[in-house]
Write a structure and sequence with these properties.
The protein is an alpha+beta fold. The chain contains three helices and 13 strands; from the N terminus they run H-H-E-E-H-E-E-E-E-E-E-E-E-E-E-E. Strand 9 and strand 10 form a beta hairpin.
Length: 239
């Protein structure tokens, strides 16, 4: 996909500006980027696109987002073109492809958390609830989980009736090595028995799932139906 001629001219101008100073080059590059995507008026309803310029994130307003192909083409072009500045410093403008994620195919995984233990521990500030059990996927045990909920007096009581909740999924790994893992954080609703949060951390194998949405609901008998959704390739899975 070719960039419009005016954009190419602006890129060249940014190179020229780079010979005179970093600030001018950054300004030229940022202007070229924004003017490149603005004319692509969204015939699609897409959220704000974010562009990274010199490690700073800048937003392009709603309704001006390019389609995925244009976004990828622009990113490839900019990655290929270093904008030279004096003292050998480079300003590289990269369209953050994750901004195009809403157009990408979404992935999801459904897991069952089968509880085997539940312990409440009261203290002066409230209560800890510790839970553990097995992770089951399509009827097969694929790991174990540890969960804790924190109730804090004055902060989680009625009308919310909630608890700060952390769940770590330990996924089956070869003996003798620490397990691959994914950690979720969010809030548990004691009234409905459900949870809303996101993936806050993951070991290297599953780093792509960080930021994914996570929910669970009660299945009865102590089980929880956990669903994790992410923006990205649907071929990815957990575990």
């Amino acid at each position: 996909m070719l960039l419009p001629l005016p954009i190419s001219r602006e890129i060249e101008q940014s190179r020229q500006a780079g010979r005179h100073g970093a600030k001018e080059a950054e300004t030229a590059v940022r202007g070229a980027l924004f003017r490149a995507v603005r004319p692509m008026k969204a015939r699609l309803a897409m959220p704000t696109v974010h562009a990274t310029v010199d490690d700073q994130v800048h937003s392009i307003p709603d309704g001006t987002a390019p389609n995925l192909m244009a976004c990828q083409a622009w990113a490839r072009f900019i990655k290929r073109e270093g904008f030279a500045m004096k003292n050998g410093i480079k300003a590289i403008c990269i369209v953050t492809l994750m901004a195009c994620a809403p157009m990408a195919m979404a992935g999801a995984v459904n897991l069952t958390l089968a509880r085997t233990s539940l312990t409440n521990v009261s203290d002066a500030a409230g209560l800890w609830q510790h839970e553990g059990g097995n992770i089951v996927k399509a009827g097969v045990k694929v790991g174990q989980y540890a969960l804790h909920r924190r109730v804090t007096t004055g902060g989680t009581g009625l009308p919310l009736n909630t608890a700060m909740t952390t769940i770590t999924l330990f996924l089956s790994t070869a003996a003798g090595s620490a397990p691959q893992n994914v950690t979720l954080q969010g809030a548990h609703d004691f009234t409905a028995g459900n949870f809303r949060g996101s993936v806050s951390a993951a070991s290297n194998r599953y780093s792509w799932i960080q930021g994914g949405d996570a929910t669970y609901s009660s299945l009865g008998g102590g089980g929880l139906g956990l669903v994790i959704n992410w923006n990205g390739a649907s071929q990815l899975t957990l575990p």
